[in-house]
TrEMBL record:
This is Uncharacterized protein. The lineage of its organism: Bacteria, Bacillati, Cyanobacteriota, Cyanophyceae, Synechococcales.
Length: 119
């Protein structure tokens, strides 16, 4: 027998994991993620009668994930603040990571008032 409490905990943990992964993406990848899944929701909203129950539930999960991601984005002091947050960095890729971080800072500069905190 399936323990529904266990399933609920697992679902909440999975949701939290996904939100943390998305919020830590580079800002461009994060925008693309949001754009893609908002499109899926729009499709589901406009074609609801043609969708299976599973597709409707999936769209609702995306809706919840997007809401959580957007709430965390609103809490950022600047775009890209959470890039690679919650991540351990593989030392074999440190040079690439530093180059990517430099590019992100060029594309999404840290506002002057926050530079001291992030240095």
């Amino acid at each position: 027998m399936i323990d529904t409490n266990d399933l609920e905990v697992k679902f909440k943990l999975c949701t939290s994991f996904i939100v943390k992964e998305v919020i830590a993406l580079d800002p461009l990848a994060r925008r693309q993620w949001l754009f893609t899944y908002k499109g899926i929701i729009q499709y589901a909203d406009s074609h609801g009668s043609e969708l299976t129950k599973e597709q409707i539930v999936g769209a609702n999960i995306y809706r919840d994930l997007i809401k959580q991601v957007e709430e965390l984005i609103k809490e950022e002091d600047f775009e890209g603040q959470n890039y690679n947050a919650y991540k351990s960095r593989d030392p074999d890729y440190e040079t690439i990571y530093k180059k990517r971080l430099k590019q992100i800072r060029e594309d999404f500069p840290i506002p002057d008032q926050f530079k001291e905190r992030t240095s």
